[in-house]
Amino acid sequence: MEIFDNLALGFSVAVTFQNIFYCFIGVLLGTLIGVLPGLGPVPTIAMLLPITFGLPPVSALIMLSGIYYGAQYGGSTTAILINLPGESSSVVTAIDGYQMARRGRAGAALATAALGSFFAGSVATFLLAVFAPPLADLALKFGPPEYFALMVLGLVASVALASGSVIKALAMVVLGILLGLSGQDVYTGTPRFTFDMLELADGIEFVALAMGVFGIGEIVRNLEDEHTRTVMVQKVKGLLLSREDIKRITGPILRGTFLGSFLGILPGGGAILSSFAAYSIEKKISRHPEEFGKGAIEAVAAPESANNAGAQTSFIPMLTLGIPSNPVMALMIGALIIQGIVPGPNVVNEQPNLFWGIIASMWIGNLMLVVLNLPLIGMWVRLLTVPYHILFPLIVGFCCIGVYSVNNNAIDVFAMALFGVVGYVLVKLDCEPAPLLLGFIIGPMLEEYLRRAMLISRGDPLVFVTRPISATMLALAAIALIVVLLPSVRRKREEAFKE
Amino acid sequence: MKNFKGAAAAVAALALALAVLPFSAAKAQDFPNRPVTMVVPFSAGGPTDTVARLVAESMSRTLGQQVVVENVGGAGGTRGAGQVAKAAPDGYTVLLHHIGQATAATLYRKLPYNVLTDFEEVGLVTDVPMTMIAKPDLAPKDAAELIAFVKQNRDGVIYGNAGVGSASHLCGMLFMSALGAQMTTVPYQGTGPAMNDLVGGQIDLMCDQTTNTTGQIKAGKVKAYAVTTKQRVKSLPDLPTFQEVGLPGFEVAVWHGMYAPKGTPPEVVTKLNDALKTALQDPKVIARFADLGTEPVALDRATPEVHKQFLQAEVAKWKPVIEQAGVFAD
Does the interface ipTM go beyond 0.90? Predict the structure, then answer.
């Protein structure tokens, strides 16, 4: 069995004192920056790149990878505790995770996130080891029409994110799309809504928008009412999961892992979509859909598993094709080049130590993360007892540093402040921010892929239905739309929300 | 552990520098007495960032102060360049930019700085050659056939690039202008997704830096036709140049240059230039550049004067090409 030889090789590389040490440093740093709002893996890895100059390539890549998937673990912490998703992948976790925290179940939410991530990480690493080359070929079959269909499906599913009025959710999606379309048009270079400012030429920064409408908006809302906080702290109970909880999260974790592993290999929006898609599916098949949006444990388990699985499988195109699927992978390729390794499809054959060493280290890293994170849950929950007048200025300070560090752009900090006000107004109007963020992410991609598909097909719209993958996804989107719009279903849905 | 100590020392030095900042009136003769910031106007991890980090690491050793790379991406490199143009002219802020420094003068009609008058050129760093590559099953067998194929099929050929103002966009414009034939241009957000669609056969043709293409070419995942430089490239010796196959004068390379803000004292520019020249002779830099499919420029091209003339020539070269294509970035 070749695979066992390869894995043995991988572990022989990963299980050395030096590499275990760098793996640990990586996941520890990753957890830390994941917990600090706004500080993401991209600026961290960029800052650490010079340090990796003197390391052997395997150790360098093991440490940098650890930072990336470690940040996925840590990112859910602030999303759950203070409604502050620092990254697109934890936006969905914030919806029900924060509601769980408000109901005193912060510990259970954090434990679910950690266990779900561990399971997903292990399975996805296994897939990476066994199926990397065929999965990479699958990613290549996705052309512009397939991506367009995937985005349509995502947008239709986004309405399911809303737990309140469908009309308001649609309005939020459209507002998100409008915000997302600002910046330079990819096709003609024409600037949109930039007011002649170079700082806005690349559009609005996602981190600024997400931290503004979620985090800052939530802080402003909390300032209104000093009492909510005390209530919340008193109700903190049961840090770990009950048997009932474990039964409820098993299915969602399995489905989330599968979905995330698949979508993670697609370059571009794949990994982002996976957590949204996992949430929508759980809500559709759940026996208690009415709990979604109010603290359903499934709604934490599925997206967290999906985003962690996606984080692992997004290494597949980078390692097997030499093509980066997101900015972090682009950085990894930069790190490889600095180490004198030319990224490309030959890396697996020419550098088996590197390829299998990284894969083996992911298993070790995921194990370290769960050991690191579970005992910390008690400490994170205690964070909620820190008084407002200390906690809030700290959070706002970290948000400013974090959002500035993304592009070294001061405009982003102002944008975050502005969106904080917007977020507060939205809360007051009972409009949910999650569909807005999904519109913001998907809208521009929808446009980009639609125009690209039409350019390549020379304006023939049939391209979307003659290609099987694209046709299947569009059909699924149509079915989902009909289900949402059917009057009887709608009535039932509204009844469910009245409860 | 040496590296962690080095990093700790750098952090300590930075903190110290910040503390004494207001009191250290910049005297040119003791430059540099605090870390130098090298602005890269693109995100970390890209080819320009890699070039900058290799050069910065070597320059740090020569100058005795850390040269810290700061990524100020956005607006095709003009945001970072604009920031350096307005920075204090003391040599502590320098810019490492690529060919976009010259093309921005035409691509952006409302640029808030002047490419030719707002900088002191420090020197040219390297030329990264480009390669014309295609999906594996594109019909033409060699570069001469490709030229005939594009002339015959015109907008039936789909050319992918990494967005307005990118190197692949410039190469495509020059190619179409040299052939007098328009292809269908499909822009992407960066090279990664474009390469994905090329390897997957969704698009026909792309021209990109050897940094991005060498791995794919050697693995046979794409078909390579020609290189865009005057001479053949050492790492891809079998590829002809476009000049060899009947496009006289066709030359495009992603050159990289270093700049300081206008008004930086000449002695400081000289010190920076000396450190740059030392970096260009550094065996480690040369070896890594070779992996990128490039080499440092000859030392006589790495001077401020030569770079100034070269920049002027490049601005003049691209102006008609961009205006003829009619694509602007604002």
Answer: no
